[in-house]
Write the structure tokens for this entry.
Amino acid sequence: MRRLCKVSVVWSPELAYAVGIIATDGNLSPDGRHMNITSKDKELILNCRKCLKLKNRIGRKARAGLSPKKYYVFQFGDKNFYEFLNQIGIFAAKSKTIGFVDLPSKYFHDFLRGCIDGDGSISIAVHPQSNQLQLRIRVCSASINFLKFLKEGILKTAKVKGGWIYTNQNGIHTLSFGKADSIIILNLLYYTGVKFYLSRKYKVARKFLNGRVA
């Protein structure tokens, strides 16, 4: 009996973006079939569901011991897609073990945009001394090897030379890029015709697209 394949595993910008979200904000069940994405941001969940061409219901849940259901949950089962994720380097209990993710380099920026939307940030601050705008792209992870993989991919595809990884007192690692590198990266992430992204992060990014502040 042939398995029912709900999700196409043919690489595309949409699949790469969804895999980036799963790599950062997703969870694979130990049962070998089910996956879920949990986020406060409903747009992220809707984007992932559209990219995977699924229609599963989006639920709500609260953190343990709390009553307000602030989190959106998207869960689905697909053994073939689960095995596909395993094959490219994403497993159950991945938060500290994820490292290299095997994907075509042509879709790396879609994957990276999914990672930033999932567990990253694009932020602007004003330098207290110079009053110049400071732009930062950051991605957080419990796995330093995953951030090393992202950094290597960014250096290779964006041709930037900066970027650094630091660790806080809770053991969470952060990959960060400064303004000049971030502008180059953003112009690759939000290319002409890009379809899926978080609106609130794009709102920050668009001020720096085409290499200039709007």
About this structure: The domain at 13-109 is CATH 3.10.28.10 (Endonuclease I-creI).
